[in-house]
Amino acid sequence: MKLAFCGNDNPAAYNISAGVLRNVCFVDALNLVPHVFLLFITFPILFIGWGSQSSKVQIHHNTWLHFPGHNLRWILTFTLLFVHVCEIAEGIVSDAQMKSRHLHLFLPAIIGFVAATTSIVYYHNIETSNFPKLLLALFLYWVMAFVAKTIKLVRYCQEGVTFSQLRFCITGIMVILYGLLMAVEINVIRVRRYVFSMNPQKVKPPEDLQDLGVRFLQPFVNLLSKATYWWMNTLIISAHKKPIDLKAIGKLPIAMRALTNYVCLKEAYEEQKKKVANQPNRNPSIWLAMYRAFGRPILLSSTFRYLADLLGFAGPLCISGIVQGFQNTSQDNTTTIEKDFLGNAYVLAVLLFLALILQRTFLQASYYVTTETGINLRGALLAMIYNKILRLSTSNLSMGEMTLGQINNLVAIETNQLMWFLFLCPNLWAMPVQIIMGVILLYNLLGESALVGAAVIVLLAPIQYFIATKLAEAQKSTLDYSTERLKKTNEILKGIKLLKLYAWEHIFCTSVEETRMKEFTSLKTFALYTSLSIFMNAAIPMAAVLATFVTYAYTADKKLQPAQAFASLSLFHILVTPLFLLSTVVRFAVKAIISVQKLNEFLLSDEIGGDSWRDGCSSVAYESCKKHTGFHPKAINRKQPLRYQLESYEQSSRRQPRPLEIGDIAIKVINGYFSWGSGLATLSNINIRIPTGQMTMIVGQVGCGKSSLLLAILGEMQTLEGKVHWSNVNENEPSLEAPRSRNRYSVAYAAQKPWLLNATVEENITCGSPFNKQRYKTVTDACSLQPDIDLLPFGDQTEIGERGINLSGGQRQRICVARALYQNTNIVFLDDPFSALDIHLSDHLMQEGILKFLQEDKRTLVLVTHKLQYLPHADWIIAMKDGMVLREGTLKDIQNKDVELYEHWKTLMNRQDQELEKDMEADQTSLERKTLRRAMYPRESKAQLEDEDEEEEEEEDEDDNMSTVMRLRTKMPWKTCWRYLTSGGFFLLFLMIFSKLLKHSVIVAIDYWLARWTSLDEHKKDETYYVAGFSLLCGAGIVLCLITSLTVEWMGLTAAKNLHHNLLNKIILGPIRFFDMTPLGLILNRFSADTNIIDQHIPPTLESLTRSTLLCLSAIGIISYATPWFLVALVPLGIAFYFIQKYFRVASKDLQELDDSTQLPLLCHFSETAEGLTTIRAFRHEARFKQRMLELTDTNNIAYLFLSAANRWLEVRTDYLGACIVLTAAVASIKEGPKSGFVGLGLLYALTITNYLNWVVRNLADLEVQMGAVKKVNSLLNMESENYDGTLDASQIPKDWPQEGEIKIEDLCVRYENNLKPVLKHVKAYIKPGQKVGICGRTGSGKSSLSLAFFRMVDIFDGRIVIDGIDISKLPLHTLRSRLSIILQDPVLFSGSIRFNLDPECKCTDDRLWEALEIAQLKNMVKSLPGGLDAMVTEGGENFSVGQRQLFCLARAFVRKSSILIMDEATASIDMATENILQKVVMTAFADRTVVTIAHRVHTILTADLVIVMKRGNILEYDTPENLLSQENGIFASFVRADM
Predict the structure, then answer these.
(1) I need a labelling partner for 743 at 20 to 30 A (CA). Which of 661, 736, 1208, 1256 fits?
(2) Alpha-carbon gap, residue 879 to 69, rounded angstroms
């Protein structure tokens, strides 16, 4: 058969006698011309363009800018393509009716399709290279196509073809589309004037794209790339080569930055404030403000959502059409063309495919828009909260109106609740519509019986809601218990050394286990409700389907047709999702309403008064904040020489107190009454002046209002009356440059309670001022920080604070003082800087820092202190008492006017001076440094711990090349998964796998049964048999759903229980060295974050993963059974799926880690700011902190944005794969021919695959991240324990051993671990029963190691210690440690009653406890407490002073009546007087027992019977103190001399 354009069965077709344009064949040929023209013109340009583009320098972004009408053009082009497809299909279907091939029916349409595709590719390339002149070609094409199509349309009208004909409609639509595209093209010419105009418009790309740091291109790429996230490909693929870091994801685009959104929301909120300004009882509405600022994107997202939901119903309709088509094949065909067109199975299959692709694209677009809006909202809210924090009145914070906890909750919880609500809110209005549509369609298919099924669903929905609320409650109670458990665990870890030495680990371990059991009970309810909700989700559709079909079988007169059955099945599947989600959404809505209330309360709480009197404008405008990166414009570094000029000029008038003229006063308070917000004046009748450039000291008893005075001057207190006057210019400064270069209105303030930033030491000291090496060194020396800095692993670049290393109180205080000294300000306020420092440091700080550094700089200093010996240095003294000023003046004035006060001071000063003499060099500071060193030397071991996780996989091959690393990154941690699954027990594991498989087989069986039942030809004969079978299967399915969801949760719980139990026991029994080496936070993390993941997150993920995987597998099985040809198509699809999931998993893991790691600094920054408010405000650093907050918020938001974009990337791809599966399944089944029931079955399953494919991948990725927690816990479980069993059993040890207290140390060698050097080398000593022995030596001489050796806390690898004839290495550890007592140098108290602290084992009578307290000088104090022995001790004993805590530890040792007492520098933190009492007590109360004292101050052991002097692990001197003192050049003698 020869081919001819218009067919060769009708010669008349080529006849043009009636005129050329009347000939249909010619008109169709004419339609080819524009398309061919376009193809010929553009192809060469495209090839040349592409060829040259690669040689050009690649632009960073392929999307510089869009021509006007960009999105409209893409939408029109896609519509055009769709219409072309319809035209092709129509042509082919019509052609099938003809006798010979009629090319003119479909060839122009095919060429048109190619041309339209080319046009958009061509346009895209022109746009990226920004060369609009070439658009003329397109313009000509649209005009020509428009003309050609119009001619064809006119032709149809003349022929009398009407709207009832499909062909006419298609042509009409195309004319409109070409017309619109022409209009778009004209508009580009109008706006850009690239032709017919002398000055074409120059266009610059958007600001974001000029900044190469912006990597988030979603707002800038073309429409197709936006819809499919094509631009993400490079990022996701690159994750394979190297991990994604913050650099790879760049910065946020301007429109999404927190600042931009903050301004938006703030304006909207202020507007609301204005509205309710004159209605006192109404609050401004945050909801309206949010709607004002973020309403449009939400509406857009809802529109997308509606479109997606409506398109979703195409699936069931198309299935019903295709199956119907098979049934009708037998009947005669006499329908019109359109009827035939939509009845054609292939056409329906293609339509189904297109509908699915569109639906999924819209759905993902809707998700993306809400996510982006939610992130924007969160950024704006965080900025609002932060700004409010900076203006909160101090009394609010200190009087407990707003606790730090509340602020942290606002930041961490409430903002996230609102963000989540925004993510879910389009569902609120989309779901009802979806449900109503679904029910209408069902009613159309099945009549009344559909309503029965719908009723079942609707009736069961409230149960879902009830379960959801219960879930939230269970989660809350779990949280409370786990907080309590963490508190207890934290105490154990902090006091682990004490617990081990006293052999109390098990008591505390059981108390944690008890709390864990409570937590576990609420976890059980949590798990129960979780599994119920999963069960409801699976069972509701089954129940509905069962009710519907059984009703239909008995009520309807016709037999159930396959088309009806499968369409309604898939409709039921569609209906379940919104109903299931509805309960969640409603719950989130309720939470969001509560969050908004809390936010509003916070935003309306009291603010600090405007401090006009400190002149410098306090609220730094946001504009300046944008420009400035973190340095104060005013804080220019001063030139060095200036200082020297000043010095020579001022030398003469340096020390004489000058008469106070008014210009000499820096600050003056007149008649001040100040309160902490209660209305009662804390400070009253304050009249003081603070002289410029001199040192003012404020002294007085504890609690007389010294610190309050400073804060009142800084404007932190409420001023009831009076005013604080700050002088404007320091007139007595000779050079005018100085006052201007200093930041005049900021005050360097060091608070009483040290406040550190989570930053490096250097950043803490410079605190935003420019770094000046000389100045920095002077300051660190003045504060004696250098030795401490040298101990830190990275020097002054070491992170300190929450995330870094914990310093002791004194070290923290010195850093804060250093910060105040370093700042370049006129005025310095130091609030009791000496409180945590010992004598030497205080002196050094006074001499070098204050007298030298500050006075040379002529800075005004206000110093609050208790150390009266510094009074002579003061230029001006303010003495306070009970919130009033007692005296003001120089020391001479006070000496003359108030003799009594002066004498009182003198006696106090003498007492302080005596203490001074007694103090020895190696006091508190060296102690602090020692603890720091202890925390430090194991830095490398921390790294080891982190690496252990990685090591497991790397054992096989030690290649460090990229490929292996990458293999590790893509490999699922199967080993860990297996460990996790088996830790729940093999029986449960088997049960879970078995019930899962059974459940899915039953579900498949139900649908298979339905297919058999509906495919029957005969009428209603075996109806009952089928109905009974169907009901049985459904019932079994529902029961199995319940069983599987319960087993998974149960297994997860058992695993969690076992893992936590093992972890706790392992840690408690670990060697002490492990705790010295491992940072506390690291161990705590295993108990908090990781345990939480194992408890609550892994089971649902596992459940979801197994469910979606099995669903996909059963679907593929069914389709292959119905149409074996499908398996061929499955191979390429499977390969594509494998690569998508492989790439996604790696990228998702990185992005999730980034999201987590950027969240912590943000939360820390908020709590830091709230804690250091007064300091920040005094320093005037608000702008810098705001800037930092905006940066941290943006960093976290960009990570989260990328994570959600990556999820969209995955979902779009898996959805398209699913659509391909549906298409292949449909085409294959149509090819197979009429087994209509099974065709319906295959298609139904193909449709479900699209929903579950992306869940498989996402759950895999989640599980991989969550398994990290199991892995970390496992790495701790591999730790070695201490060896608790001795060689002697209990019967061989005397009950009252050690009775005498005789100690023989024979050739003792000790080391901390078998790979370290020995710390004690061949020590020999003999201690008689009842002797008092003192051991002294410099730091690190092995004194403490010796005390630990008695308890076998260290590794004794040679020699032995024999106590009362028994070698201690043979005793069980528990016995040994419970029979000796020790007092440690750091006092440790636990939260609980005093009784519990003295005697956790509850063995002693009250009398014995009182006796012990009396010995320790505590009896009276404890008696005065409410509850006496049952009075509570707060965490860490914070409600007692350090000295009192130490006395409690002594009492604890007395309670245990052991004949050997070891005191390890126990009196280090007690003042002299108490210490002397103690020494006497120890001598009397322990007269008959052996006491080994490790001395910190030598004079404490002068009364001992025997003194041992140690050096570097050896004993140097060993004799009575008298003999040792008589040796002039002995070491002990030199120690004593130094101490005198």
Answers:
(1) 661
(2) 77
- Say if CB 515 and CB 1028 are below 8 A apart: no
pLDDT digits (tens, 9 = 90+) for 1283-1316: 777 777 777 788 878 788 888 888 888 888 777 7
- Rounded to whole angstroms, the Cα distance separating 1494 from 1384 reads 10
Distances from the Cα of 1104 to the Cαs of 532, 1098, 1158, 1263, in angstroms?
14, 10, 28, 10
For the beta carbon of residue 1297, count every other beta carbon within 10 angstroms: 16
- Please report, to the nearest 10 degrees, the dihedral formed by the alpha carbons of residues 1356, 1357, 1363, 1365 taken in order: 160
Strand order in the sheet with 665-675: 681-691, 665-675, 718-726
Instruction: List CB contacts of 807: < 8 A, sequence separation 6 or more.
Output: 756, 788, 800, 815, 928, 932
Extract the tokens encoding 813.
């205080």
Cα separation, 1243 vs 916, whole angstroms: 91
Q: Is 59 helix (H, G, I), strand (E, B) or coil?
A: coil
What single letter denotes the amino acid at residue 1225? A
Cα–Cα–Cα angle for 1321, 1323, 1324, rounded to 5 degrees: 155
In this predicted structure, the answer to whether residue 740 has a pLDDT above a threshold of 70 is no
Measured CA to CA, the distance from residue 1335 to residue 1513 in angstroms comes to 12
Average model confidence (pLDDT) for the chain? 81
Closest Cα partner for 1449 from 637, 501, 74? 501
Place of tokens 């790495």: 1275
Structure tokens at 1035: 């019932």
Q: Indicate the SS3 state at residue 1180.
A: coil
Residue 1415 tokens read as 């010995």
Q: Would you say 632 and 1185 are in contact if contact means Cβ atoms under 8 Å apart?
A: no
Phi-psi region of 883 (alpha: psi -120 to 50; beta: other; left: phi over 0): left
- pLDDT attached to residue 18: 64
- Partners of 689 in the beta sheet? 668
Q: Is the dihedral of CA 1042, 1044, 1046, 1049 positive or negative?
A: negative
Q: Could you give the CA distance from residue 910 to residue 1305 in angstroms, rounded to a whole number?
A: 45
Cβ distance 1461 to 1489 under 8 Å?
A: yes
CB 1222 within 8 A of CB 356: yes
Residue 873 CA, chain-centre distance (Å), reads 51
Classified as helix, coil or strand, 1490 is strand
Per-residue confidence band for 929, with pLDDT thresholds at 50, 70 and 90: low
pLDDT tens digits for range 495-549:
888 888 888 888 889 999 999 999 999 999 989 998 888 888 888 888 888 999 8
Task: State the residue for tokens 């009831």.
Answer: 720
Q: Is the pTM of this model over 0.85?
A: no
Residue 385 Cα distances to 265, 449, 601, angstroms: 12, 55, 11
**CA dist., res. 1186 & res. 87, Å (int):** 60
Q: Contact at 8 Å (CB) between 1053 and 527?
A: yes
CB 1173, CB 390: distance < 8 Å: yes
CB half-sphere exposure, 345, CA atoms < 13 A: 26
Give 227-294 as a 3 state SS string: HHCHHHHHHHHHHHHCCCCHHHHCECCHHHCHHHHHHHHHHHHHHHHHHCCCCCCCCCCHHHHHHHHH
CB 1244 within 8 A of CB 1163: no
Burial of 701 by CB count in 10 Å (0-12 exposed, 13-18 middle, 19+ buried)? exposed
Q: 1298 preceded by cis ω (within 30°)?
A: yes
**In residues, how long is the chain?**
1540
Q: Judging by DSSP bridges, how do beta strands 876-881 and 747-750 pair with one another?
A: unpaired
* Helix, strand, or coil (residue 1237): helix
Would you say 1019 and 999 are in contact if contact means Cβ atoms under 8 Å apart? no
What interhelical angle do 448-494 and 562-603 show, nearest 10? 40
What 3-state class would DSSP assign to 2? Answer: coil
